[in-house]
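Re: [ENG-882] Designed sequences occasionally contain unexpected residues at chain ends

Forwarding the minimal case from QA. Structure tokens:
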């Protein structure tokens, strides 16, 4: 972990997005080299104004590195830089991949074949059963299931995988991508589920450093990772203006397959999914429909 302290520091810098971090790495090759730059040198970099230079040089951020290292070590959390061999290859190929990922659990599975399952937080019984059905059967085909640990469809996608794991230890595993630091579980009610994911060889990952709260603005960015790590996404219930549709947009932008489970025409939870079908998304009614 001591060898990764500069990556931890790099992830802690405020107001510096992944694209700008990538550009800095292209020039300076490593976070350590960026760490050693002074105010004058930083101000010569295009796009780095006085405010961002101050954030990069912030003394308190540098003091906090040791505290983060101790917490990560104590809680078996690793940090996986974009330059690391185990970093998800598919994710590396998207427009703005995270510069590093915090990983709790099995980091060896992040390059396995994966399908994402996404949908409504306030899922109907139909949506919950569909998410569980697809996750269970795809897991039995040794495919990883990726979702967001949220209420509703996400939870039942993870649960479907765990049911398959209980029957056959060789089945695929599940990865939860969250929009907060790994020092907390959100929502709190999914703490037991999160522990089960880890116990069963899965992983919980985040691009956000420790201490990051589950702010609303984090989740759209989180969604690009869910689709980015997957070969395709299955949409199970989405309202007309649903956050799930943001994941669909990312998936299309990234060239991923989009599969949609048709829904009840009388349910508000199916307006978004049924509209996707009208727009040409592939309808799936069986796990055998997933290529």
């Amino acid at each position: 972990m001591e060898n990764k302290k500069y990556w931890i520091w790099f992830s802690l810098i405020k107001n510096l997005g992944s694209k700008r971090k990538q550009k800095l790495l292209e020039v300076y090759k490593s976070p350590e080299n960026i760490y050693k730059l002074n105010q004058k040198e930083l101000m010569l970099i295009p796009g780095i104004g006085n405010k961002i230079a101050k954030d990069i040089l912030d003394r308190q951020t540098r003091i906090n590195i040791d505290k983060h290292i101790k917490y990560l070590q104590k809680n078996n959390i690793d940090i996986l830089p974009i330059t690391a061999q185990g970093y998800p290859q598919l994710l590396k190929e998207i427009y703005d991949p995270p510069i590093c990922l915090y990983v709790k659990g099995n980091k060896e599975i992040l390059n396995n074949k994966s399908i994402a399952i996404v949908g409504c937080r306030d899922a109907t019984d139909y949506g919950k059963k569909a998410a569980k059905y697809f996750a269970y059967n795809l897991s039995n085909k040794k495919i990883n299931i990726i979702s967001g640990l949220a209420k509703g469809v996400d939870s039942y996608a993870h649960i479907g995988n765990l049911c398959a794991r209980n029957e056959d230890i060789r089945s695929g595993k599940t990865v939860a991508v969250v929009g907060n630091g790994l020092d907390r579980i959100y929502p709190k009610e999914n703490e037991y589920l999160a522990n089960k994911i880890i116990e069963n060889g899965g992983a919980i990952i985040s691009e956000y450093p420790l201490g990051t709260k589950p702010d609303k603005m984090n989740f759209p960015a989180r969604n690009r990772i869910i689709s980015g790590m997957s070969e395709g996404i299955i949409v199970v219930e989405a309202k007309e203006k649903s956050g799930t549709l943001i994941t669909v947009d990312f998936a299309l932008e990234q060239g991923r397959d989009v599969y949609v489970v048709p829904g009840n025409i009388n349910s508000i939870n199916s307006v978004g999914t049924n509209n996707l079908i009208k727009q040409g998304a592939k309808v799936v009614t069986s796990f055998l429909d997933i290529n």
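QA comment: On inspection the terminal residues look reasonable. The chain is about 45% helix and 15% strand. Proposing we downgrade this to a documentation issue.
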